[in-house]
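Revision sheet: structure tokens.
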Amino acid sequence: MGEESLARAIDDFTSGAEHLTHLVDLIADDRWDGPGLGDWSLRSLVGHASRSLTTVVSYLAQPGSGIDLESTAAYFASIRGYGDPASVRQRGVDAGLALGEDPRAGVVERRAEVIEVLVGMTDRPVQTPFGGIMLSDYLPTRTFELAVHGLDISRAIGSDLPLPPPVLASALSTAAATAALTGQGEQVLLTLTGRESAPISIV
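Predicted:
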């Protein structure tokens, strides 16, 4: 069952990574230093999104340990409110700069690297800063990030390129499971059914 879950997680993640490369292809050369999200330029926003690719590579390069986080939702529940917003912003800036003079090529290179690493991979624990988690549970956290920041990029550039259905389904499933685990499940259900509208944050 674990390997079936991993295969599905890899497929969804790969689709999200491909969607990111399609989005960056749509960014005009003179837009990279323009508005992205909040204080981020478009380059910084894309850089932050690309970390969903590079963290998989870096975590898989390290030996796995025990399992502290039993699910994708448990991962997101563990990081709620964690970290300094200024540090998060700076990591995005740094990641954007690391894409180099040709950020499109930088994203394509990162996508190719992570896909190569995942070829033939079996399910195994990976160590994150928040604890150990199975790869099949960790990859959906990256698919979620690719989905959400893919929407951010689309809005920033005025694109109507839709999320691939498996990526959207994975992200929605993660959001619902995390909301339920963090005590926001009923509010999410009320919001989705149009009965209420209230700010909800799962991360």
